[in-house]
Amino acid sequence: MEILQILWEKGESSVRNVHEQLDKKDIGYTTTLKLMQIMFDKGMVSRDSSSKTHLYKALLSKEQTQHQFLDKMIDAVYNGSTARLVMQALGNQRASKEEIDLIKEYLNTLENS
Question: How far apart are CA 39 and CA 31, in angstroms?
Fold first, then answer.
């Protein structure tokens, strides 16, 4: 996910550029390279090999990826219950009053649809 975040933010990037952006000091360059090669093999990123330095670009949109990860997390952690996820998230009391108001507004639009 961190690699995708960098590619979404910076756009097309070399392995070296991505590696330098990663906050993890204990991961070597070759690990970053291997992860990006795996992501290429899985169709998550594209690779421009036309020059000496290969450039990688995210193929999946941020929204598409967030949706897929959220679906997997709801299934794996909350046994498919979206309500449990929402109650847990709001129970942590990290949401501001403005965020809670937005959530209420969104829920009202769902009820009226």
Answer: 12
